Amino acid sequence: MASYKRRDFLLFISAGMGAVALKGCQPSEPGNVLSSSSTTEISSFSPSFKPVKGPMPLPTYETITVADHQAISGKYSQYEVIDDLVLPEGFTYDVIATWGEAVGDSRCGYNNDYLSFIQTDKNQGFLTVNFEYVSAKPWLETYEEVIGRSLPMAVVKQAFEAAQSQSIDAFSLPAQDPLRQAILEISKEGLIDMGMGVISLGRDSEGKWVRTYSSVDRRITGISGWTDGRYLKATGPAVGVFRQGGRGYNDRLGDKIIGTFANCAGGTTPWGTVLSAEENFQSYVTESVHPDGTSFSPSDTPFSTTRGLGNVLGLAGNKYGWIVEVNPADPEDYGTKHTWLGRYRHEAVGVRVKAGKPLAFYSGCDRRSGHLYKFVSSDPVVDPSDRQNSRLLTSGMLYAAKFYPDGSGKWIPMAPNTAVNPDPASVHIGGALALPLRPEGGSFVATTDEEVETFKKQYKTLGDLYSGDPPTKQGAILIDAHLAASAAGATCCARPEDTMIAPDGSLYIAFTSGGGDPGGEGPDGRIFQGPGGVIPHEPGWIVRLIENHGDPEALRFRWEMWAAGGEISEGGLGFSNPDNLEFDSQGNLWMVTDISTGSQNKPVPPGRVNQAGDPLASRDLIGLYGNNSLWCLPTSEPDAGQAYLFAIGPMECELCGPFFSPDQQTLFLAVQHPGEYNGKRRNMASQVREFAMTGLDGQEFIQTRGVPIGSNWPGKNPTDPPKPSIVAIRRQNLGAIV
């Protein structure tokens, strides 16, 4: 583990970086850790907490060596998974808000994700929350119990059975059709449970954060504007497409937008606004667009229980997949979508602000072939805290990243005059690359290098792939950003999720999963390799990126694989699938994991072979890592990139959106979809499963693991429904966490 990490770090330094001056959005910054003096050994990192014990042996939990195999296997031969948020000794958590509770004139949504706390006084502030999606099994199973009314699911199930299909195009049904009305009710309720929320908080005499229910509290849902006039606004070149219409579907609303949904991660600006990232919008509306940027019909994404929820409402798909900016302090602000930031499956936003320089915003597209993007504003920042800085998001240029195996990279402008130069299909894990389909619109998947070469000969610039006058053509490129970036030769990445600016101005990126599907899209295998060059590497990485000369508008950069997920014996750090990132006041990086629900605690048989005797694929070993978790990683040498386990989540959940209060006494955390796979835990049900674990030396031993089936969190009583909730973690003595 250490040799892999240290080797890559030294190679990165030797690549000619030298000392650079880096400036981030913080008022004062430490020296550049990649300068020539950064290799000097300093005192070791000592965590301010005793790490919790996870299912996997970790040298950061206790002092163990390669030779301690017998001791390790004895200590870890049995392990019990707990349906609770497990924290270090001396810490506790308070539940702040839970699905179904009142927020303004609506309710707390489902699957809370990104959190942003903006303090307005010493003991009060606004907590802005993203609500990403509804998990089919627990949402449908407990909706009536939590919300207090039923959904007309029987009507829909009967229609599914009659049609011998699990999807229905409700958009094409007559307005008064009873089936359409039932689907409309289900779709509206699902979309209400997505979007954003603003919750006012105060700290009581015991040091706990509690809700204060101010007039600012409000929800921005997936149907805001549908009947209440609370439309979202938009800026940038895509607005011209919305207003003019064209070849495809037109919702006849012009630049007015109904709602926001699929709100995953996000970012907080130095001027006090919150940026929310619309991620998997393609689950609810049609993603494909025509060459002029207009949408395919809503009929192309039919209703299917908790999918296709925009179908019956006739939502135009090109209005979703954006970054939404909201001022939590303004009760009349229901969000603005800035189209210069691009339309794709946004996971997060890293905000880089430096007085005298343009704004730089970083975001990733969370798909197995997604790209890393940077927006640079046309005008410079004068005062980083000026609320007028939002106007800088209305003009600039979007770029997509090209990574090279030698640790260098460049930014490719998403402009009409940019050359078409896609990478060969064969370099991608999975062996395929999606490209714009012309003249029909939408996309096709190239599975041979010959197909890609034919495409390159047919189209010379991105402008050849899109239609309209120059502003409209630019808008169409931004609307179709993922395919445009692939056509321009941007690197297909390993599910880029969070992007976080460090105090020194460098960018940390969580690449969650390095897998690909045979014959399908996947990351570039020349770049995304695990320790020892292994591909695919399912556990993922954290990558560090430095702009040339520390300049936010630089067109060249350097990058390194800063920390690898995976087993200790294989060169990893003991975690899998890194996702949301956050820095504390000491510069330590905090990271939550995003192990898919179906993979959590999935048994790994002895010998790690399947029934046919073949070695298990990388993705089939993810069950080793147990539940999703929260980690602390120091960024200063000599311990940079070591991983300390701070928290383990309840059953079948994902931990999201860690955010520190300014005094570092509180860590706000979202616990998303407990019980997503098995629903409510009944009669304290559990299973005993076996896992072929390894010690630090790589020797196998069998762990017997007790695994609860479903969840009762946060109530924890045997009959309680699982509910997504927001918690505030604190020390019991109310001291600083770090």
TrEMBL record:
It comes from the Bacteria. It comes from Limnospira platensis NIES-46. This is Phosphatase.
